[in-house]
Prior knowledge:
Elements: E1 8-11, H1 15-26, E2 31-34, H2 58-73, E3 76-78, E4 81-86, E5 92-96, E6 100-104, E7 108-111, E8 115-117, E9 130-132, H3 133-143, E10 150-155, H4 159-169, E11 173-179, H5 183-192, H6 197-212, E12 217-218, E13 221-227, E14 234-239, E15 252-255, E16 259-262, E17 265-267, H7 270-274, E18 279-282, E19 287-290, E20 303-305, H8 315-332, H9 338-364, H10 370-375, E21 381-383, E22 388-389, H11 390-398, H12 404-411, H13 424-435, H14 456-459, E23 463-465
Parallel strand pairs: 1-2, 1-7, 2-3, 6-23, 7-20, 9-16, 10-11, 10-16, 11-12
Antiparallel strand pairs: 4-5, 5-6, 8-17, 13-14, 14-15, 18-19, 21-22
Amino acid sequence: MSPEPCQVAVVGGGLAGIIAAAMLQKNGLKVLLLDENQGLGGQYLRTHPPLPSGGGHFLPRLGAGHMRELAEKGVETVNRAQVLAISPAREILAEEDGQRLFTLRPEAVLLAPGAREKFIPFKGWTLPGVISTGAAQILIKAHGVLPGREMMIAGSGAFIYAVAAEVLANTGRVRAILDHNSLARKIEFAQGVLTMRHKLAEGLGQVARLLLARTPIKNRTRVLEARGDGRLEEVVTTKLDRAGNPLPGSEKTYPCTCLAVGNGFVANLELGQLAGCRLEHNPALGGWIVGVNQEMETSVPGVFAAGEITGVAGAEKSVTEGRLAALCVLHRLGRLSAQAFSDRARPLRKERARQLAFARRFNALHAVPAGIVNSLPDDTIICRCEDITMGEIREAIRGGCRTPLAVKRSARVGMGICQGRTCASFLYEMIAAHTGVPVSGQEVLSVRSPVKALGLGTLARPLERF
């Protein structure tokens, strides 16, 4: 399809993006929604079979209603579209399904690209049969396929329990949940959501399912090694002390053919970086994020951001920020008076503040203890694309490379096809553990366009301008 000229481009079709796009179009603006997936909804609204418009939790119902509204209001949507670059002047370069390249320069841009999982590597994590918790959820929710009839789930945070509950709900068996956190830390987190009715109900439902299935939960435990001849056959675990160091003699070996791992989330920053947006490091919000003001505008005029890119806090924050960003764009483009904007934005800002408070507890569960970093063997692969090991990175640091960019240039870590999306967040933790320079004192790795892999055939096509 050929996009028509638009006033607002929304990048990302998750909850924040679809809610903002529907509000903007409803108020008379011409909107173009760009999303790299086959269908809208992001990870949260992936379902198999397709999501019904009624029944169930209020957020899926809300999302389904807004997706229906997008079609009714005639919001132009380009699926399978990768945004490859965006300039400080708001000029966007995108490609559609590997078939065409096009550029556009709207009056305003809303970045809502979401987040991705982060991982703590271990020996053997590249074996077939070891997958991410997000991949496990996609297989179940989008395709109705269990990654394994029996599996283990490891990592940290609340998401590993959500995935375990989905496996059980789809007739699978979870042999064990291996959680880096202590029981005390998880109780502290649970106390923080007692006043958040929807999150509390969701969490209690997951816990009830796990208890009914008698799923073992092993606290302060991590995967030491995944073993197998050509594919995963067994998992070696270890208990951790308070600093995250493995406790000698606590190792156990379990037969396992499917292991799902995940250690929280980091924001997809790359487009914000290319646009020149100010970045901030805030561990309470998931690490590096795109900074925004109270109007959800970045440091680049006309470029707004909403959802996980401004802080990892879950679906409810994405809904609030999608609405707030839409109001700000409407006000900026003259479709909403100053008084109306103030009246409608005030309760949303209050709700956002409450959700950011939840984020601090949520992301505390994903902290990476220095003991885990320091205890990884030298032959552990860190950069999966380039097969760069822990030992090679340690050698680069000992040789004087004290910054992420210096380590990247010396050891080639982060130079593969994913451009550091998998290994960069752990690289920052490694440098912090080995040099004492906190992640906030480091400089985030730079990005260049195109931010995603682009086929030469697509690159050779004529560039269309809108």
